[in-house]
Amino acid sequence: YAQAETMGQQLRELTVTVTAKPDRGYQVTNVGCCFSQVTRVKENVFRFSMPKSREEVHVSFAPVVYPTSVSVELDMGGKAYLDMEGATIGTTVTLTCLPDEGYRVAQVTGAELTDNGDHTYTFVMEDAAVELSVLFLREENPFLDVNETHFYYDSVLWALENGITTGTSDTAFGP
């Protein structure tokens, strides 16, 4: 999954530098020698003193697990959870949204999601942390910018139901 290069001038100095180059989505987990103690100099760069005998260098790599998280906006209207708290590149992650009675999933943001039509959404993990946000709204409310915590909520829905307003778009009430 990766390669390690060794550099050093063993005739003038007996220090060997090992630079590990992990492939995308991998990290160095361990660098060790049979007879020498290895010191980490900086990320993916290690040194050891060359013994008078032959030395073997072992470099271990592992996939990076990127964190995933989900939050429910306004902390109301339902629950949402992910099938895993972290994933490696290329892994398909599933988000399940469970609206309370009378609510619907109005918006899910934070990643390029596929709506599976059964209150689940999937995305393929990239090489970065993913933070999703789910907004649940009452079924009768089409506007993402109007929720039941706003003092004007009932008035806006009354005006919508009575044909007085339609909002600035199908999903926004506007100013």
Detailed description of the structure:
It is a single chain. 5% of the residues lie in helices and 47% in strands. The protein has 1 helix and 14 strands; from the N terminus they run ββββββββββββββα. The strands form 4 sheets. A 4-stranded antiparallel β-sheet has the order 1-2-5-4, with no helix packed on it. A 4-stranded mixed β-sheet has the order 9-7-14-11, with no helix packed on it. The chain is rod-shaped. It starts with a strand and ends in a 14-residue tail after the last helix. The model is unreliable at 8-12 (pLDDT under 50).
List descriptors.
four-stranded antiparallel beta sheet; four-stranded mixed beta sheet; 1 helix; 5% helix; 47% strand
Please outline what is shown here.
The protein is mainly beta. The chain is 5% helix and 47% strand. Strand 4 and strand 5 (45-49) form a beta hairpin.
Could you give the topology of this structure?
Elements: E1 2-7, E2 15-22, E3 26-33, E4 39-42, E5 45-49, E6 57-63, E7 66-72, E8 78-82, E9 86-87, E10 92-99, E11 103-109, E12 114-115, E13 120-124, E14 130-138, H1 153-161
Parallel strand pairs: 7-14
Antiparallel strand pairs: 1-2, 2-5, 3-6, 4-5, 7-9, 8-10, 10-13, 11-14, 12-13
